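re: ur question from yesterday

yeah so i grabbed the chain u mentioned. its 316 aa long if i counted rite. heres the sequnce exactly as i have it in my notes:
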Amino acid sequence: MAKKPDGEASRLDEAARAGWLYYIAGNTQDEIATKLGVSRQTAQRLVSLAVSERLIKVRLDHPIAKCLDLSQRLIARHGLQLCEVVPSDPTSPSTTLGVAEAMAAELERRLTSQHPIVVAMGSGRTLRAAVEQLPPMECPQHKIVSLVGNIAPDGSASFYDVIMRIADAVKAPHYPLPLPVIASTVHEKALFLVQKSVISVIDLARQADVTFVGVGQMGDSAPLVQDGFVSNAEMRALMKAGAVGEIVGWAFDAEGKLIEGHTNDRVASVALDQPAERLVIAVAMGVFKAKALKAALAGKFITGLITNEITAELLL
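ran it thru and got these structure tokens back, copy pasting raw so excuse formatting
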């Protein structure tokens, strides 16, 4: 990475200091101005710069009553081991706002344990956004393993694969799955799955203490279509067969039953347990995800959920 000019680096140092004084130490902007020897307006700009440059990441620790009530109702209805509902911003176009930060906090909490754990990860936009919220950590005692292949249809590394990013952030041993998400043929999938390295990764994934997955919807806007893993024709065939959602490529219907045939015959990701026997946390939000999330809950593919208020209300 190119080195920042001395002037810019100095400005970021001042912004980081101002951000720390404001968000961590609890100083007012007037107090920051006094301590840094600058005007109040400059102090305000420095705090804003700390946020815009992502030098400061803010998390809300207060359990908002409505969110807490929604999470408890979801736990009671679906027998979940864990559920966190974050506030919604109805005006935001973001598909990850709030849930990515909440997942990062949950993952960070588990990684601070000195007891070795295995963390299994799906892929996708929400999980990638969450990993980008993680602070630098040193976690050589843990293992991070992928549930899903990291190879895109054109042979390149999958853009939304998160295993490398998380391992880099927390300095933990990591185990990618060196496969395409969906094999070209059933025969090709069979050849992949007998490879010794693949068997080892899948065995490790099945031992995970906690698993984080995204949940994809069906349709033209589906991640599987947008990222080129299935064609529009294949998506239409899945929907005709009743598919409403997918987790790591495995498509299922509204009752939570895996679709027979179609692309499910060629999915190379780690197979989903049904019901899930360990803690599997789905991280997803949005009206367009509600049907897929309902189906995932009905099928007991997941035992944990991180979502927002609007989505939780739809699920209830």
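noticed a couple things. The chain has two domains: 6-52, 65-315. also Residues 65-315 form a domain with the Rossmann fold fold (CATH 3.40.50.1360).
anyway ttyl
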